[in-house]
Structure formats: C-alpha cells, structure tokens
Automatic annotation (TrEMBL):
It comes from Esox lucius (Northern pike). It is a multi-pass membrane protein. It holds the Pfam family Choline_transpo. The keyword Aminoacyl-tRNA synthetase does not apply. It is found in: Cell membrane; Mitochondrion outer membrane. One of its GO terms (molecular function) is antiporter activity. InterPro entries: Choline_transptr-like (IPR007603). This is Choline transporter-like protein. The lineage of its organism: Eukaryota, Metazoa, Chordata, Craniata, Vertebrata.
Length: 707
C-alpha cells in the first residue's frame, strides 16, 4: 500500500488542535535554554568583576574637580586644597596655542587658588609694596619667600608675571572681558601691562580665553542644566507624582469605564494637540513686530542659551507644522480605523476584566522600574569609574625649540633630568589622564563590555516583566471558572515559573536584541567619527545600514514579546516558542493588523494624553506665563529643562502602567487566536472568550439558543 501523505497546512504551520486537558499555562515543565542561562550567569559574574576593577582603579574626582599642574584636585574636601576650589592660569595668553585643542591643556603653570584676582598688578610693581606682594602671593606656588628678588621669582616660575582681573567660570579663572565703546576691555581697561614691560591690548586675551574654553565648552550647558535641576528637582518630583496619580486614575477608570474612557482619550488628545497648535500660533503672531524675530534658524546657528530660539518666529512655525502633522495623522487614522475601533475597545474591556482579577499586575511595573534603576545606576557608576581610572600624564612644555617638547616626564625628579639640563626653561606639567599598562590598553574593551552588559541586563529585566505578566493573564483567559481555576497569586506564580525554568530563554531573547542594539550603537559611533571625511556613497551606505538595523530591532522586539507569551503558556524553549508565535500570527495576519495594532494605537493615545496634560501644566508653571506662579516658580537658566524632564519621565511612568494593559492585550490576543483554532463553539469545544468578544466577532457557542 502506498504510504499516506501527512496533511499539508501551508507554509505557516499546523493550526492548534483541541486538547481537553489544556487549561492554561502548563505547570509540569522543565528548564529551557540552559546553555544561554549558564552563559548569562558567567557574563554577570564578569560584569561584577569589571565593576570591582573599575571601582578600585577609578577616581570620579577627576571629573568633579579641576586639576592643577601637579595633578592635584582643586577644592577637594579633606585635602590642603579644600579652601582653594578655583584653577588659575599663570599666563592665559599661552592658551592661544593650537596645541591646546589637541592636548586639552594650556602650556602654562596652573595652580589652585581661593578666589580669582580682581585687580591689575605686575610682579615687579607688587614686589616693591609689602601689602601688594602679600596679595600677589595668593597666586604663587609654594616655596616663595620674601627675600627672593623679582627676577629670581620669575626665573623659578614661582609666580605669574602679571595679574589680570578675572571671574570664575566652571571653577576656572578667566579674564573679565567686556565691551566698552566698541572695544574689548579687561577690568574696564583696553590695555594692560604683561609684567615684562610690554603694553598689550585686551584683544590679545581673546584667543587664549577662546581656546581655553573650547576644552570645557560642552560643560557650560551641562553645568547650567545641572544648576537648573538643583533649583527645580522638588517641583519635578511633584510633577512626576501628578503624572503617577493621573496614570493610576486612567487605569482605574479603564477598569470600570473602558468604552467611555477610550472615546474620552481620543477626544482629549485631539483637543490637547489642538491647543498646542493654537498656543504656538499665538506666539508666532505676537513676535511679528519684535525686532530680530525674523532671523532664520540657519542664520542663528547653535546657541548655548536655548531660550534665544523661542524669540524666533521660525521656531514657533516649526512647532505649528509638527503638531499639525501629528493632529492630521491621528484624525486620518481614526477615520480609516473607525470600523475596527469597536473590536479594539472590546479587547480593552476584556483586558480590564483580566486586570480586575489580577490587580497586583498594576503594581508590577514598580518592581520593573526598581530593577531597571539598579541596572542603570550600576552601568553609570561603572562607566564613570572606568573613564576616570587613568593615571595622570605629565609632559614637557617649552616656549622655545626643544627636542623633548611634549615628551612624557616625571615631575618628582624633572629638575635633575637630562631634559631639564638641555632645555633649561622647560617645565614638566600635568597634561591629561592616560596610561600604558595592560589595564589601560584594554580600557576601551571594558567600556564596550559595560555597555553591552547594560543592554543585556536591561533587556532581560524587561523580558522578565513581559513573561511574568503574560503567564498571569494567560491563566485568566484559559480558566474555565474564574477565578476558581486561577492560581491564588497569579503574578507571583508566573514570576516564580519564569525565574525557575526560563531564565535561559529570557537571556537568549534579550541577548539577540542586545547584539542588534550594540550594532546600532557602533554604526552611530562610526557615523560620528566619519562625519567630516565621509563621501556621499559612505553616507548613503551608513544610512541604509542604520535604517535596516532599526527595522531589525523593531521586528526582534515584536517577535520576542510574543515568544515570551508562548514560553509562559507552554514552557518550551525560546526558538520553538518564537516559531509557534510567528506562525500563529501569520495564520491570522489580517486580525493582527486590524485588531492588535489598533489597540496599541489607542493605548498610545492614552500615554500621549497624560504627557500632554502634565506638559501643559509644567509649561505654565516653569515658564512663568501664569501670574499666580510667578513668585512660586524657581528662577532657571533654561525653563525648558524641567518641562522636558517632566514630560519624558511622565511618558515613562504612563508607559509603565499602560504596558500592563498592552501586555494583557497581546497575551489575550494570542490566547484568543488559539481559542479560535482549538475550539469551534460546540458544546464539547466551547469558546473561552468573553460574551462581548463573541458578539463583536459575530461568533457564539452553539450550546446557546438562537436569538
């Protein structure tokens, strides 16, 4: 007899068959992806070792305090320099050398001082007056005595040849430059004595100050932003508490009034974005008569004071265009998806019922937030310690020709070295932090390992949350009698199963995602490095690669999410679960497109609404637009800093709460698809979905009488 061919179900696999013994997540399961679990544990132990090594070698003081020519920290608590927090340059004009931009260090002596000089003075003049010389010694090195002559002091480089009125900026003393009668001045004077008998123009200081500030220019904005945070952190926390309460209120209302709340969210989002368009339009019109408001953003260029952009009409025009496009897209999507909204709302209602039986799921994001905070804190601290674990490097600085110029040197014995004897006027000064040991050679590798493990651990924590929630909500869907057939504590039962049996599967899925993410980081790094030299072909290829890997990352996130649901239900390994989930979704492609994604869109509108409400309140408070808050709001450099912080964090908070709904919807959706394949609505194989879902899908259990 010819062998009977097995039935062919197409390229998307065999549909699920009816199994009378199946009642939700399988309890009799074994460990999955053990090899990946062992690899993950080994990598975590290695990560701890890297952290210990970094903490033993690093010194965060290097990024907090400025460093003098001896490599000492200015203003460090518990040291002789505790009362001297400012860095003073002996001759700021030497900072005009192009080498400053290459080595990030001025070729002049730098010492820590208590305060910056506030008057013009030369050493030759101060040496003749006891009181003046007493003041002058505040800006000299140790080892100076009153018996030394002025020429000896200058030869020994113990004091600067001159003092210039200066002001502290980022803990460094820079000349107090100003503008008077169209001329650059320093201390209200257009000229000064350089201490060597020459009268110099104040303009000569500009180049030195400019190059010196290039090294710390990026810190200028960062310092102002940090200052704003110190003045507004408690108001930011209050805004986040409000966002937390609003998010919780929305979730509770969704639990009891899902249908009404969805329509309220849709209308409110349209109104909030509409108000944004109206406000930006009013600002655009009000700047019409303001002088200088018609300057284009291109002509204005980059400004460290970001508030300047808010006085330009083109900025508000850009806001109007962006908000209008967002508003139009949302309205068009709602029009085209109007027939599918009822099904999506029914799915959200079912998710609300599920959350009603698993109320502890609403608080699970707090556990995820805590774990993510620990991962981020460990990564950030390790990164700081790694970046500051270099040793101080000293180099030879010389004004005249010297064959040893820019060579490394040791300050302890430099005065008796060959380099000093052949270049008598040279100095051995602190240049930067580096190192030549094996540890320092592999430092970039350790930083890369730190970043990669950060991605892996963060993705693992997220995956653990997804699998835990999926297991809890699947136990709700497949329970024939609710809550009788459900575990007493669904969240804890699911969390225990995930950690006990599926740590390897969680590590496997998060590893794949982390590899793609680290490739994206490397592509961004390469793009940044080649920005000035790349040709059009290179730019095009990099752009294509970045786009491709962005799409790959989105696909893997989607596949992982559904794979974790299948692992939580059936207890199989990651690859098998990913395959089963993918084929199940492919067999129901139309339903995936019009149901699951519409529901995600509605939940996204909810997050957008919360961010919009909190953002509007934050804007009126921090910008001082409302008179009632003028005396209450803190004085800030950039009022947009707390506003953006509150909005971004509000989105994360809303995302945390709505992610419970999103995970519930995705889990119920997969269970719903399997329900349609396993059962046919007969008395022997009844559908387990709710009555509302059956009604919307125009299906019914055949045991019910016809109506």
């Amino acid at each position: 007899m010819p062998r009977e061919e097995p039935p062919y179900y197409g390229k998307n696999g065999e549909p699920r068959k009816y199994d009378p013994s199946f009642k939700g997540p399988i309890y009799n399961r074994g460990c999955t992806d053990i090899i990946c679990c062992i690899l993950f544990i080994i990598c975590i132990l290695g990560y701890v070792a890297v952290g210990i090594l970094a903490w033993s070698q690093g010194d965060p003081r290097k990024v907090i305090y400025p460093t003098d020519s001896r490599g000492q920290f200015c203003g460090q608590t518990g040291t002789p320099l505790e009362t001297k927090p400012l860095l003073f340059y002996f001759n700021i004009m030497k900072c005009a050398s192009p080498m400053v931009l290459l080595e990030f260090q001025c070729p002049t002596t730098q010492i820590c001082v208590e305060k910056c000089p506030d008057k013009f003075m030369t050493l030759l003049k101060a040496h003749t007056n006891k009181e003046d010389f007493k003041y002058y010694k505040n800006f000299c090195k140790d080892g100076l005595n009153d018996q030394m002559s002025a020429p000896d002091i200058l030869m020994s480089r113990l004091c600067p040849a001159m003092l210039i009125p200066s002001k502290p900026f980022t803990r460094r003393c820079f000349p107090a430059l100003g503008l008077k009668g169209g001329k650059i001045t320093v201390g209200n004077e257009s000229t000064f004595n350089d201490g060597q008998g020459n009268i110099r123009n104040a303009e000569d200081l500009v180049a030195g100050v400019k190059n010196a500030t290039v090294v710390i220019e990026a810190r200028q904005v960062a310092m102002k932003i940090f200052e704003d945070y110190t003045h507004s952190w408690y108001w930011i926390l209050l805004g986040l508490v409000i966002a937390l309460l609003i998010s919780l209120l929305f979730i509770v209302l969704l639990r009891y009034l899902a249908g009404i709340m969805v329509w309220v969210m849709i209308v409110m989002v349209i109104l909030v974005i509409g108000y944004g368009i109206f406000h930006c339009s009013m600002e655009y019109v009000s700047l019409k008569s303001e002088p200088g408001s018609n300057v284009t953003l291109k002509d204005l260029g980059f400004q460290t004071d970001f508030t300047v952009y808010l006085h330009i009409r083109q900025t508000w025009l850009a806001f109007i265009i962006i908000l209008s496009i967002v508003e139009l897209i949302i309205i068009l999507l709602l029009i085209f998806l109007r027939n599918r909204l009822l099904v999506a709302i029914a799915l959200i209602k079912e998710a609300s019922r599920a959350i009603g039986y698993v109320m502890s799921a609403l608080f699970y994001p707090l556990f995820t937030f805590a774990l993510l905070a620990m991962v981020i804190a460990y990564w950030a601290v390790t990164a700081v310690f790694l970046s500051t674990s270099n040793q101080p490097i000293y180099k030879v600085f010389n004004e005249t020709a010297c064959e040893y110029s820019r060579n490394t040197c040791a300050p302890a014995n430099y005065s008796t070295s060959i380099m000093k004897s052949q270049c008598p006027d040279s100095q051995c000064l602190f240049a930067f932090y580096g190192g030549e040991t094996a540890y320092h050679k592999y430092l970039i590798g350790l930083q890369f390992y730190n970043v990669f493990l950060f991605f892996w651990c963060a993705n693992f924590v997220t995956a653990l949350g997804q699998m835990t929630l999926a297991g809890a909500f699947a136990s709700y869907y497949w329970a024939f009698v609710k809550p009788g057939d459900m575990p007493a504590f669904p969240i804890f039962a699911s969390l225990g199963r995930s950690l006990r049996y599926h740590t390897g599967s969680l590590a496997f899925g998060s590893l794949i995602l982390s590899i793609v993410q680290i490739i994206r980081v490397l592509l961004e790094y390469i793009d940044h490095k080649l920005q000035g030299t790349q040709n059009k072909i290179t730019k095009f290829l990099l752009c294509c690669l970045k786009c491709c890997f962005w799409c790959v990352e989105k696909f893997i996130k989607f596949l992982n999410r559904n794979a974790y649901i299948m692992v939580a239900i059936y207890g199989k390994n990651f690859c098998t679960s990913a395959r089963d989930a993918f084929f199940l979704l492919m067999r129901n492609m139309i339903r995936v497109a019009v149901l699951d994604k519409v529901t995600d869109f509605l939940l996204f509108l909810g997050k957008l609404l919360i961010v919009g409400i909190v953002g509007i309140f934050a804007f009126f408070f921090f910008s001082g637009k409302v008179k009632a808050f003028e005396n209450t709001a803190p004085t800030l450099n950039y009022y947009w800093v707390p506003i953006l912080t509150v909005m971004v964090c509000s989105y994360l908070i809303a995302h945390g709460f709505f992610s419970v709904y999103a995970m519930c919807v995705d889990t119920l959706f997969l269970c719903f698809l399997e329900d349609l394949e396993r059962n046919d609505g007969s008395a022997e194989r009844p559908y387990l979905m709710s009555e509302s879902l059956l009604k919307v899908l125009k299906k019914k259990n055949k045991s019910e009488p016809d109506k």
